[in-house]
Model the fold of this input.
Amino acid sequence: MITTMTLQLVVLALGITSMLLLIVAALPPPPPLPPASSCTDELVLFSPCLPYVLSPPNNLSNTASVSCCDAFSSALNSNNGVCLCYLVRQPSILRFPVNNTRVLSFSSVCPIGEDTTVP
Done:
């Protein structure tokens, strides 16, 4: 037998579910990342950074090289600078484990020239 309290709880649960669905539907979608295939060239240019960004035991350097920082600056200035996000969001894209902390540290370990702008 359904009691009044049970019926009230069902109605309340349906109301809350409806409100949550409306809130989620109203949120703007996140900006899409370019397809991984369009980032291949960008990530190949980023190869001087591999000794720094790979996880142990593959990390061969504790500092980012000049050529790595140049690749980072170039990525920021290109239309595909967002491709670096793949190293954080999809670390398996290189088929090697990536140290996300080091990828995210580029802006502090690599000097960025005055003409560098983030797209």
Observations:
- Residues 36-109 form one domain.
- The longest helix spans residues 4-26.
- Residues 114-119 have pLDDT under 50 and may be disordered.
